[in-house]
Sequence to fold (543 residues):
Amino acid sequence: MQKIKSLYTSILILAILGIAGSSCEDQLKEEPRSFYSSNNFFQTVEQANMAVIGVYDLLGTTKLYGQVVSTIFPCDTDISQIKGTGDDGSKRSIGHYTSQPSITMFKDAWRYYYTIVERANYAIENITKMELLESGSEAEIATLKSYLGEVKFLRALVYFDLVRLWGDVPFKTTPTYVGEDLNLPRTDRELIYDQIIEDLEDAKTLLPWASEKALNERVSQGAARGYLVRVLMGRAGYSLRLDGSISRPDNYLDYYKRAALEADTLIQSEEHTLNPDYEEIFRNYAEGKLEPMESMFEISFAPMGANAENGGFISTYIGPQTNASSSYGRANAYINAMWPFYDSYDLDDTRREIAVAPYEIKADDSKKDYTKKKSDYHKIFPGKWRREWNSSDPLYTNDTDVNWVLLRYSDVLLMYAEAINECRNDLPGTLTMTKAYDAVKLVRNRADLNGWETTLTQDDFRSNMIQERAWELCYEGWRKWDLIRWNILGEKIQEAGQAAKAIREKYPYPAMEKFTTGKHELYPIPQRDMDVNTALVKQNPGY
Fold:
């Protein structure tokens, strides 16, 4: 499997961006042959490819999906929490809802996201201007269109992350040139959503299906369509506004309808399907095996040294605790699962023992099992990302080459069913509730469970979906954002806390006391950016 990261080793994309808009030819009599400028770049398909890889590049760092966005930001919820109870001014503070705007992880994530935006804007503008896009061979034109679709997808992905993490944020769709005012104010998230959706609509027409492209970690048409469904579901949901209110758009049902229709098109394409073996999905990630039928888009990692920026902490930060002296290498298991969630599974549900691991790996590779009756009863871990499943040698303490999944086909099926239910009283096209029940049945049948009774009320269907998404998609980074768009994060934290305390009064679960509705649905704008950007005049509510 070719890792995206390995393609980027020698690319001087920062140099390209750094001189955008300057007049090199006026200052130099002879252009340096080892340096790319805006005047001699974007002449070939390969140069365009280099720029596209530069946009992918930063997603696969510890500042974003290598650690922070995949493992830290999704905590704490009703299914997981960061271990420990104290406020460390960093990871634990974020998970336990005691964080401040000065936390470095906020600053770094914000900076990396906007660097990706800048790279994407630069690539989109310059690929669009390439002569080859009009005069090249049929193959060259098709390839360049695909590259353009990839970059538009990635820009949409990043802006969607920024909106769901911080709400109204600075917004820009053109490259930054010398002399521009960099003090950008917040833009209403609804306007940003317009651009996100436009980018994904463009991407889906430009990209090939997974079956039409090489087996690699780059985005396909199916991923663009599936992510468009996710964005539409997010836009239909609730979010915390700058005035402290929590609301959703008045026309939210329109977005559910669009999501249902888009998912229906994707499903009817038959380009994607479920892997019949739930466990194999996650073993594939651990073993570096690409399987684009269910796994529709992954973030790639290829560590080039200890604590390198291009390594991921997947299966070390999130997975069963593993002794450093074991043959698998260390996993410090920074994320704990919740016993009440483990107990919520049907005993016949085959996802249960894959999703949650109530054990640790000792130095001799043996397992030490935990139960609620032992003194260390809270030791229970996400099971999908197990160090013992990794096929590569444990070269580094934290870094692995395990990819992080951003979209699976089962997620599309569940979003499809949810969207149909939400607009069941005014269904567009050929959509029916039967299709919603059939989609859920596919997901549950794989887990050796029956589908749902087909007479559920809209509210009961919604309640079932809230739980089904947890069982199917737990520890893949979406639970917190699902609960926010449903406006029940605080409610579910309280329910989980009560269930945990019923197991044992001293069950460590700080979120129960620390979470504040109307504040913690968003993160604070990083303090450094509030200080530097004079156009950012208002912090998020409660900070």
Observations:
- The beta strands are 80-82, 239-240, 246-247, 295-299, 335-337, 356-357, 359-361, 367-369, 381-382, 404-408.
